[in-house]
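Fresh eyes needed here. Kindly weigh in on this sequence plus structure tokens:
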Amino acid sequence: MSHGATSPSTATTCLWNARLLWVERGTADAGACATWYADLLGDAMSPVANGLWQLRGAERWMLFRDGPAKSAPSFAFAFPTVAQHDAFRSHLEQAGVAMQALAAEYATLLGGHGFSILDPDGRRMVFTVSPGQVAAVDGALPGRLQHFVVASTQTLPMLEFYRDTLGFVESDRVVDSDGDLSSAFVRSDPEHHSFAVFRAPASGPDHHAYDVPNWNAIRDWADHCGDLEIPLWWGPGRHGVGNNLFFMIEDPDGYKIEFSTELEHMPVEMPYREWPHGPRALNLWGNAWMRS
């Protein structure tokens, strides 16, 4: 079911074209986890501070911090210009959203422009200006960090905060037979989702995804995982919501990583659709990972 198109809100106008910049992973041994990801992605690994590492490649950035396993202490979105960053910050000030200065290690990485907020689940979001791209490491497969997904016990308040306060545009929602919200997918540019929330018994990170160029690249990444003896955890398949081809693997903590291509594009004014809660919303080709 589609709902009537509406003009973009002030919040959406301020946010539109921001893109996911990094995902930070908390884990018992940040150095070991970063090394595992470096082997997988082929990106350059370097220390940032005591217990904090970074991994940077072409169009992707990961941080790794000593802490609780399978956690995600922060994720970041970047604006293409300083002017848009400043306009978004002014919008949040007017909306009464509490903002914090960047922690020292984030400020060092980002070079000045940026701030952070907490979402309804207490998850830290960093907003900054795009620092520009770094060159790909020779031999590294292409895959842009594209979206981050969380689990939550309060899907509707999360959707309302991301959509109505921050300005993400709702793309699809999944509802159960009682009409309760099972999951919601929101976008900050024409790609179907840069963030999503799934209903689950406890709040926490769910997965992040890399957008790869085409179906052949899905094959290449799967072959690469096979060479590293990393088994495919789910897929290949095609999501109903977003219509993208995908497969998923697990890192050493059991946290999920997705490789995806052909994600649907939606203009800002395109209305959201509604899906019934069930396997086909998550995989048109077969079995699905049902969080609830």
The helical segments are 10-15, 30-41, 82-95, 104-110, 155-165, 215-227, 279-282. The first helix runs from residue 10 to 15.
